[in-house]
Write a structure and sequence with these properties.
heterodimer, A: 318 residues, mainly alpha, 14 helices, disordered C terminus, B: 292 residues, MetI-like fold, 12 helices, elongated, disordered N terminus
Chain lengths: 318, 292
Amino acid sequence: MGRYLLRRLLESAVTLVLASLVVFLGVRALPGDPARTLAGEESDPATVEAIRHEYGLDRPLPVQYATYIRKAVSGDLGRSPRTGIPVADSIRHALPVTLQLATFAIVIAVTIGILAGVVASVRRRTPAEWGANAVSLLGLSVPNFWFGQMVILFLAIAYPIFPASGFVSVFENPVESLRHLLLPALVLGSALAAVIMRQTRSAMLDALTADYVRTARAKGLGGAQVIFGHALRNSLIVVVTIVGLQLGALISGAVVTEQVFVLPGFGKLTIDAVFTRDYPMIQGVALVTATAYIAINLLVDLLYSVIDPRIRVGGAVI
Amino acid sequence: MTVVADPPVLVAPIGTRRRIWRRIIRNPLAVLGLGIVCLAVVIAILAPFVAPFPFDKVDFSSPLQPPSGEHWFGTDSIGRDQLSRAMYGLRASVAVGLLSVVLSLAVGVPLGLIAGFYGFFDPIVSRLTDTLLAFPFLVLAVGLAAILGPSLTTAIISIGIAQIPGVIRVTRGETLRLRGLDFVAAAIAGGATDLVLLRRHILPNAVSALIVQATVAVPGAIIGEAVLSFLGLGVRPPTPSLGVMLADAQTFIRDGPWMAVFPGLTIVVLTLALNLLGDGLRDALDPRESRP
């Protein structure tokens, strides 16, 4: 376990360095003078010079990179030239919105996905299986922002049950928060639910024909106990992996969902930054996302090896 | 009467393609998918001839008209025919679906082959893949749109890049698997060079796995284009794209819900058709997989 842990940690560190390098070089890949780009197109030479000095752009690239990393580690991601607010502060305000949305979406996706997957595998060749399959196919074929528009159209405009936009933190008013977040979370979670359902179904189909399930049945255990206690328990490994693998899709989905439901989250911050050419913000957002993503993937991998001991023993890491 | 035994199968035998084709034809859902996909491609190519109106024809006398005999999909806020715009919009969808996948294959296949064949390169390519994967698709697209400016080309590039890791993984996995098989060992014993091994023996046998990968990638790319254009990171107005149409619809969702309904349905029908075709193709290429 120790060696596996060490190797994964090392791999993640290397990936993180490479990712930060990509982010760092990305802004420098912009056409023209980076100082001028950072300052904005119509800025006077003095401002450009100040920016050049602030960012140390007159020094060699490796030194610049080292400074950039040192600042980033201590939480300094620069200052947005547009708003004048430190990038880290903007991110700190936007992140809770996205985290609440994503957590809620994962809960919805896992619940629906696993239930539908179990039903589809246990009730084979019945309308229940066809229904679950059809819904999952739709979940994969419907772009989530359009699903969001349709949900708004029906549940916020035609039948105004839920608000069409806005955000209330769960820590301030849990009931209002739920009302505001239910539709966006449902929209964000739908694609994930479809993927989880498909994987659960195929893992369950494998598990249900396995020897240990036959043994359990032969011992006289009841249907529910075999399905949930034996087959599903072993199929859950797949779900953990899928949630980990789909995390990137979830982050992308959150950007779109926030745009449709006008939520002041991380995604909206990102899109606004692109349209206002707010490069320090883009840089900061990209770096934070990549770091979080690498860290969570590492966590999922470790969790995976805890659930399934075969992985840390053999060299076969998926 | 002599019984002729089948020769041992080394490479895909002649007639395999016809057998796969026959399996697809026998699957009604796959045929339906294929039909819709072909129709969409034809409409995209012939848009100027089949669209009832020019896509940019503004008609201030009939803004926000609900669907009617004249305007099947209704009109938008400045009276443009939504059906015609959707037909032209298919061009962007088809272009992105095709070109981004071609781009990801062109980069991913050689890297995957090298990583799977030469153990020395494997860790390097793996770190490269991980680095690419460290950026969720939209963050990558945002970065590229900031650097290159939003356009159809940018959309193709960012979607293509986002799909490279998947292609590398599949190609690498197949190469690793095939390398250990007897026919490759036989070819090595026969004095085949690495290039011959990769091109004549490994790549052709990895094709079906790559096709399966592509069947998932193409509908993903089409949705990707719609998402990027919806956010303003892809195709820019006035060029019509289904995503651009849905972005326009966002403002008029109360007064002109059809503006959102029909372009969205067009995307759903197209991606659903591609998924059905993909499922059929997957079953045809690997019958074991589909019937547990």
